[in-house]
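DUF2905 domain-containing protein
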Amino acid sequence: MLRWLLVVALALLLMQGLTGWLRKLGFGRLPGDFEFRAFGRLWQLPLASTVVLSMIAAGIARLL
């Protein structure tokens, strides 16, 4: 259980650091990525980007 928690924490830190670079490549702006304003904040739901990045990660994991 601790190992999975560590993996998830590291993945979140990695995604946090790569957000600017991924936005330049178009992730976060795909059709299916939602962005809306509510309660005075900008909320983002990058559903399509999540699916694409998951498929890329699965492909890399399969190769290794």
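thats it. The chain is about 60% helix and 20% strand. The first strand starts at residue 33 and ends at 38. bye
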